[in-house]
Amino acid sequence: MTARKVLVLNGPNLGRLGSREPDVYGATTYADLVADCEKTGADLGLTVEVRQTDDESELVGWLHEAADHKYPVVLNPAAFTHYSYALRDACAQRTAPLIEIHISNPAAREEFRHTSVVAAVATGTIAGFGLNSYRLALQALTILTD
Ligand code: DQA
């Protein structure tokens, strides 16, 4: 059996992990995150493809691709979380589990981060565990059936 493909999708500014506000997001680089997700996935029997974009339409397109292929998704929508109805509507079309994740805990930060327009159409949300949020989401996918 071939390993199930999972898309790990990252929104704006996450490509700058390592140099971006390290007090909030840590010192691990985006390249390290990609390697860690691929390794975690392989250990779990998943083929993980990690992508990042600062472009809303590109992220929407990747969610359409996931829906068309029934790929499960781990999504860190970054700032789009808080206002992108286009992203929300793309997530609503999912045909497999979609886990919203955050490195930080948005509920413990500024008020504008307390709203997620994606949460209601996600399978569930994991937030506040640093980069372990990605690992936890990949583990969660392995216990979900769809
Ligand atoms: C984030 C939280 C968002 O509020 C923020 O805009 C991000 C990163 C996180 O992973 O903690 O870019 O999604």
Automatic annotation (TrEMBL):
Catalytically driven reaction(s): 3-dehydroquinate = 3-dehydroshikimate + H2O
Enzyme class: lyase
Annotated site (Transition state stabilizer): R20
Sequence intervals crossing the membrane: none
Domain of life: Bacteria
Pfam families: DHquinase_II
Gene3D superfamilies: Dehydroquinase, class II
PROSITE patterns with a match to the protein in the record: DEHYDROQUINASE_II
Enzyme Commission no: 4.2.1.10
Keywords: Amino-acid biosynthesis, Aromatic amino acid biosynthesis, Lyase
Residues that coordinate or bind substrate: N76, H82, D89, I103, S104, R113
Catalytic residues in the record: Y25, H102
PANTHER family the record matches: CATABOLIC 3-DEHYDROQUINASE
Record's function text: Catalyzes a trans-dehydration via an enolate intermediate.
Family note: Belongs to the type-II 3-dehydroquinase family.
UniProt-recorded name of the protein: 3-dehydroquinate dehydratase
Species name: Kribbella lupini
